[in-house]
Amino acid sequence: MAVAISLCTSLNTKNSIPPPGGRCKYTGQAVRALPTRILTVGKKRSCGVQLIVDEYIEKLKHYCHIDDVQIRSNPRNARDVMAQIEHEDMAFMYHIRSDDWVVLLDEHGNDIRSEQMAELIADAGNTGSSSLLFCIGGPYGHGRQLRKRANVSIKLSSFVLNHQIALVVLMEQLYRVIAECCSDLQKLLELGTHAYGRKMKCVGGTKLFNKEERKVMEHHHVMWQTLHVNGSAIF
């Protein structure tokens, strides 16, 4: 079952990241966590890194569908660096669909914090895209086609990170953002508080929630109304 997450977001412009601070225009609204894919270029991962990645994938599957896709470094064994970049670029483009929201991880990308990562994920859910796609390149960076296709370019650190380390950092941030936001929404559903009218108003209308999700939220809204009329306090 897809999960809606309560976030604030203001990321709307291609290749831009919202500045820290200020009020987000979607504050307190519910946004669907899109199915997510992570494309990584590189050689075979170490056992330790793969164990960490697998652990985060299992955790994230409770909140959204997630796929880990590995692309072989230098797929055509080119000797020229530019040819290698071009071949990896073509491999990336093969996996990208027209309705993907593409996030490029690049050392020259926009520097973001965890809060802005939440905004990025939330905004992707309001673009009409069917899935969220993160791209981690090889040692020589990304090719021209992928850079042109990307909706957003970000960097995870001012340090230059090995692609395996970058993947671990990305997985941790995705889990931190999505799990915390979904947990906040679940608390609202369990309590059925007055915040329902504000928190449950979703971008694009109730169509973001399936029948089962709407039924649960409507039940808790009725429960709050009953408590309120009777003068009872929830907290």
How many beta-strand elements? 7
The geometry reads as globular
| CATH architecture title | 3-Layer(aba) Sandwich
Helix content: 40-55%
Work out the strand percent: 15-25%
CATH class: Alpha Beta
- Could you give the order of the helices and strands? EEEHEHEHEHEHHH
**What is the terminal separation in angstroms?**
29 Å
As for the number of domains, it is: 1
Largest sheet: 5 strands, parallel
| Unreliable residue stretches | 1-30, 191-209, 219-235
Which structural category fits the helices and strands?
alpha/beta
> CATH-wise, what's the superfamily?
SPOUT methyltransferase, trefoil knot domain
Write structural notes for this entry.
This protein is an alpha/beta fold and 235 residues long. The chain has a single domain (4-188), classed as Alpha/beta knot (3-Layer(aba) Sandwich), CATH 3.40.1280.10. It contains seven helices and seven strands, in the order βββαβαβαβαβααα. The strands form two sheets. It has a five-stranded parallel beta sheet with strand order 4-3-6-5-7, sandwiched between helices. Strand 5, helix 3 and strand 6 (131-136) form a beta-alpha-beta unit. Helix 1 (47-60) runs parallel beside helix 5 (163-191). It starts with a strand and ends in a 6-residue tail after the last helix. Mean pLDDT is 74; it is low at 1-30, 191-209 and 219-235. InterPro entries: Alpha/beta_knot_MTases (IPR029028), RlmH-like (IPR003742), tRNA_m1G_MTases_N (IPR029026). GO terms for molecular function: methyltransferase activity. Belongs to the RNA methyltransferase RlmH family. It comes from Davidia involucrata (Dove tree). This is RNA methyltransferase At5g10620.
